[in-house]
């Protein structure tokens, strides 16, 4: 029995030791699993932090790209505007690309009527010379108002002179071009502007001379000779480009009448009209302050002598 009990005890001991080893293994496995879970948790937290950091970087990068795109669009729009403005200026360049020698030759030609009207005469398609003549006429009108007895208020009335000269040049050119279209005349709007603009050269000469030398007889001589020559030049060019006697009479008669009457208006009526406009807008020309003379009473010489002696004795 003693041996049997010993065996039984050994078996019990072996079973107990086996169960304890199994418990140790389970504990070790559980500790490993907990460590792995902790490592996985730390890894997940790190990944979340990295994701948040990358999200902030992505947001900043997106904002930077949007700002860069906006700056690019603004620069692109400004560049397109600059190119379009340059293109518009480039369209007008052929009308002002002219040499001074050519302008001088065309000024002299504007005073010489052409004789050949059987074929269309050549018209310069440039606007530099006519534009300079219009500004010259404006300056001459201002000079005439300063040298005359016209009372100038509120500046030199440059706006009135510019409106008159440019209004005549553009308005009459458009009206004659419309008549030329109705009469089947071979002329363009630019050619009409150039023809009428160079026709103002005679007006500039006449007004410049007669504003400085005030003789009506001298004005009429220049009006008929210088203004008449420039008008005949324009009439001859239009006659060469118009077919039909009636059409020529209507077109050329209208242009000659308007051109010669405009010179008369500038010499005689322009200053009076401007004065009337100023009086209407501002009222009559009254001085801002008037001094009224006082009546000084007459004092006898005896009173003056007595006063002087009294002052001398006092001193």
Automatic annotation (TrEMBL):
Name of the molecule in the record: Protein YIPF3
Biological process terms in GO annotation: cell differentiation
Q: Where in the cell is it found?
A: Cell membrane; Cytoplasm; Golgi apparatus, cis-Golgi network membrane
Does the keyword Glycosyltransferase belong to this entry?
Answer: no
Family affiliation: Belongs to the YIP1 family.
Q: Does the keyword Transmembrane helix apply?
A: yes
Per the record, the domain of life is: Eukaryota
An example Gene Ontology CC term for this record? plasma membrane
Enumerate the transmembrane spans. Answer: 127-145, 157-183, 195-214, 220-240, 249-270
Record region (Disordered): 1-51
Protein role: Involved in the maintenance of the Golgi structure. May play a role in hematopoiesis.
Please name the source species: Semnornis frantzii
Composition-biased stretches (Acidic residues): 34-51
The protein's topology relative to the membrane is:
Multi-pass membrane protein
Listed A to Z, the keywords are:
Cell membrane, Cytoplasm, Differentiation, Glycoprotein, Golgi apparatus, Membrane, Transmembrane, Transmembrane helix
């Amino acid at each position: 029995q003693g041996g049997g009990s010993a065996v039984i005890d050994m078996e019990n001991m072996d079973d107990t030791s086996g169960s304890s080893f199994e418990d140790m293994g389970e504990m070790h496995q559980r500790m490993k699993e907990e460590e792995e879970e902790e490592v996985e948790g730390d890894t997940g937290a790190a990944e979340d932090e990295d994701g948040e950091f990358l999200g902030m970087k992505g947001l900043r990068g997106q904002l930077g790209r949007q700002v860069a795109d906006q700056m690019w669009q603004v620069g692109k729009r400004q560049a397109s505007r600059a190119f379009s403005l340059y293109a518009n200026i480039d369209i007008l360049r052929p009308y002002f690309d002219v040499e001074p020698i050519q302008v001088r030759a065309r000024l002299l030609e504007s005073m010489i009527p052409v004789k050949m009207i059987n074929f269309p005469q050549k018209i310069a398609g440039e606007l530099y010379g006519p534009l300079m003549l219009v500004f010259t006429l404006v300056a001459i009108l201002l000079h005439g108002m300063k040298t005359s007895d016209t009372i100038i208020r509120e500046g030199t009335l440059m706006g009135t002179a510019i409106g008159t000269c440019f209004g005549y040049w553009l308005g009459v050119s458009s009206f004659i071009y419309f008549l030329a279209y109705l009469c089947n005349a071979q002329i363009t709007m630019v050619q009409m502007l150039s023809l009428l603009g160079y026709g103002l050269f005679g007006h500039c000469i006449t007004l410049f001379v007669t504003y400085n030398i005030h003789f009506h007889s001298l004005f009429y001589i220049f009006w008929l000779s210088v203004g008449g020559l420039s008008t005949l030049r324009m009439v001859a060019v239009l006659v060469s480009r118009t077919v039909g006697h009636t059409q020529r009479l209507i077109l050329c008669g209208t242009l000659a009448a308007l051109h010669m009457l405009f010179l008369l208006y500038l010499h005689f009526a322009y200053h009076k009209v401007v004065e009337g406009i100023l009086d209407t807008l501002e009222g009559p020309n009254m001085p801002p302050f008037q001094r009224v003379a006082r009546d000084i009473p007459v004092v006898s010489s005896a009173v003056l002598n007595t006063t002087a002696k009294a002052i001398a004795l006092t001193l």
